[in-house]
Structure formats: C-alpha cells, structure tokens
Amino acid sequence: MPSFNLPNANHLLTATSAESLGDYSKSIFSAASQWVQNELDRVVKRSYLLYLRKEPQENGLVKYHTMCRRQYLADVSNAQHCKALTRILAGDHSLAVVRLTWADNHHVPVPHNERLCRFCKCKVETPEHAMLECLHPPITNMRDSFLAKFYTIQPNAVPLCNTMDLRHYLAYIASCRLTFPILAKWAFEVTKFFNATPMLIPSQYRR
Questions:
Q1: pTM (2 decimals)?
Q2: Domain range holding 37?
C-alpha cells in the first residue's frame, strides 16, 4: 500500500489554520501514483497496453498517465463492452497468454511460447494477435468491419500495415477518443468469439 507522512499530533493540535498544515493532498496523490506505477511495473508482462496507451487530453493531445479516470469509462455506455476493453488493457482477459499462465484442474502452467492461438495455431494468443493479426475468417471479418468504421471516424488515422509493432498499434487505437465505443464493442465481440472455443492446450501439459 502507498505510504506517506502525515503531520504529527502536536502539529495538528497547535495548527492555527488548514493552510499551516500544508497541502497534504499533493503528497497523498504523489504516494498513491507511485504505488500504482510500482504495481504496473510488477505486472508489466500482462499490463503492457496500459504502459503504451496514452490518455486523450482536453487540448486534443494524448499523454501517459499512471493514475487517472480513463476517458473511455465515460464514453462507452455499454457496461459489457467497457468491461471487455478494460480487461484487454489491464491484461486481465481470458486469452491463452494469460489463462495458461496458471495451473488448474485440467492443465499445468504452459510456457509462454506454447500458448498458441486456438484458431490459427501459429502465434501466441495475445490481445494484439486476436484483434489485429489472426487470419481465422470470422475474426478477419470482424477486424475489417471495425477498421472500416475506425478509418471513417478517424480519417487521418495511421493505417495498419504488416511491418508495425502490433502492441503499439493496439495501444494507439485505444488512445483515439472518438472511436472508444466501437473499440470496446470490438473487444467484447472478439473476446466472446474466442471464449466460445476451448483453448489450445498441448497434450504434454494436460492433467
């Protein structure tokens, strides 16, 4: 938990005004922000999209924030869509790259490079693979539909191409405020589609 120094009892009892105590809200916010950043550092392998994503500002620019109320929480009215996007960004989703980290009644932990996509069976099943790379026809149809809407709403957007770092491109899309609602819907639809099919678990890791 975050730690910070509060005024001692004597200081509190002899204070002549709130101003004389100083602005402890700043030190509390600073300590809390540092604690959140340390937690993000600890789980960076899962929460990398939170590192890469930038928050839209009132002046139209985007900026990284360790701790703030994320704008998409206000812009996405559908609770299920909002939850799906939050889980993708926070690394708390149901794709194999996360789910196969742990053991359960059916399997032991699976090495990272063997947590393959349940559809194409070619790449590790990560959010960026599922949403931007997998060539399973139903998924490519969903992707094409989303990107067509994305480019219409964001006519000056950077187009997706094969040479891009897909993690950075997904974080870029997640930083574009005008398209938060359709991004959240897409995250929900992709996650739902993947959840409808059992994960690919190599036989040597099954119980």
A1: 0.81
A2: 1-42
